[in-house]
Design a protein that fits this description.
By secondary structure, this protein is of the alpha+beta class. It has helices at 2-8, 15-19, 25-40, and strands at residues 13-14, 44-47, 56-59. It is globular, with a radius of gyration of 11 Å.
Length: 63
Amino acid sequence: MIERFCSRLRGQRTFRQLLGECPTRSEVAVGVLALLTLARRREIEVEQPERFGEIWVRPRSEP
C-alpha cells in the first residue's frame, strides 16, 4: 500500500483519491497505517481541516 500511495501521490490529493474506487474496510485500515508510516518517515504531510472532513495528503516539501 505504501508503494501504491507513493506512485499516486503527485501534488496534493485526498485520502479517497489515493485509495481508489470502492475500497474494502481492510484496504481503508491498511491505507491509514500506510499514511501514518509515511508521515512518521516525514515523506508526506497530512492535513484534515475539518473534523470528519477530507484528509489531504501531499509530498513533503524539501527544506
